[in-house]
Amino acid sequence: MAYIKIWIFLAVLALANTQKTSVENYYGDNMHAVVRNDEYIDAHRRHYAGNIWYYDFQINKFKEAYLERVNSFEYQKEALVRELIRVDEHLYPLTVLSDFSKACVQKYKSLIPSMAWAKSEMDRCISVASNQANSLITYMSSTNRTLQSHYATTFEKELNACKTKFNTTSPTNYTICLANAVALTNTYTLNNQKSFSSQLQTAKNSVAVHMKTVQECTFGVYNTTVSRISEANSRIDTCLRGNDDCSHCSGFYCQEVFSMHHSLIDPQNATMFNPFYRREAGKCLMMNIV
């Protein structure tokens, strides 16, 4: 009888140990599965954060490059200011040479635009282009915010739904649910990236238009200023020769002076820019090649 009791006791003890081991294996496997799922999700969160960072990087570099190109026109403004200073230094000795030469300078110097006007007009051209910087990145910034919002709300809600529905009841289904949430977000990211790339290309095309506009604007200011300087110098020179009031005098002077940039002259091109094409008719046009 004693042997039977001992045998029953050992059988119960073995059964208890077996059950304990099964429970430990179950919870141990589940714990490892949870850890693997957490690492899987964290890896994708880091990847998504990298997507947002790269969007920000591209937007900031695009804006910086655009403003750098616009600000390069500051050199043209500085060159124009130096030209006005040079002209003023050239004319000043004539104002102290004699009363006659001073009168000639004072009579026509007003034709030359002031330095304040030249600076203001060049600044206006540059400012108009600079103000386009934010509008160029509007759509890209919106796309970036949309993707960031998807990661922070939609994706996280899907993860919480998986956790609520499957985490404690079915680890396998929980893992599948997480994988589906990631797959959907990856598809959304891909479509978002396509939109961003298209918007970036459109912005680059717009930059070319803005660059042409600011170039034409600054050249117009430069051309007007140099033309007026040339006209004033010609009239002052005529005045100094004593021919200022002669309406039929001979020589090489025209009332109308056209300033033409040397880059527009191309001897190899039969259809180069024609400075004589205009609506008004005139008897004399003097060209000043700069």
Structural features, described:
There is one protein chain. The protein has 290 residues and is mainly alpha-helical. It has two domains: 35-241, Ferritin (Up-down Bundle); 251-289, no CATH class. Helices cover 77% and strands 3% of the residues. The chain has helices at 2-71, 74-97, 99-108, 115-130, 133-136, 138-166, 171-240, and strands at residues 256-260, 285-289. A two-stranded parallel ribbon has the order 1-2. The radius of gyration is 40 Å and the shape is rod-shaped.
Global outline:
rod-shaped
Mean pLDDT value: 82
Q: What is the radius of gyration computed over CA atoms, rounded to a whole number of angstroms? A: 40 Å
Terminal Cα span = 126 Å
**Total DSSP helices:** 7
CATH topology of the largest domain: Ferritin
Structural class: mainly alpha
CATH architecture of the largest domain: Up-down Bundle
Q: What is the β-strand count?
A: 2
* Uncertain residue ranges: 1-32
Task: Give keywords.
single chain; about 290 residues; mainly alpha; Ferritin; 2 domains; two-stranded parallel ribbon; disordered N terminus
